[in-house]
Amino acid sequence: MRFIPRVSCLLAPLCLALSTAHAADAHWSYSGDQGPAHWGELGSALCASGAEQSPIDIEKSKVEPKKVPASELKLHYGKTALTLLNNGHTLQASAADGDTLTYKGTEYRLLQFHFHTPSEHQFNHQPYPMEMHLVNQDKDGHLLVLGLMIQQGHENKQLAQLWKHLPTQQGQEAPLAAALAPDLARLVPAASHHRFYHGSLTTPPCTEGVQWVLFEKPIELSKQQIRQFQALFPDNHRPTQSDTGREVDED
Ligand SMILES: [Zn+2]
Question: 148 φ, ψ to 5°?
Answer without folding.
Answer: -115, 120
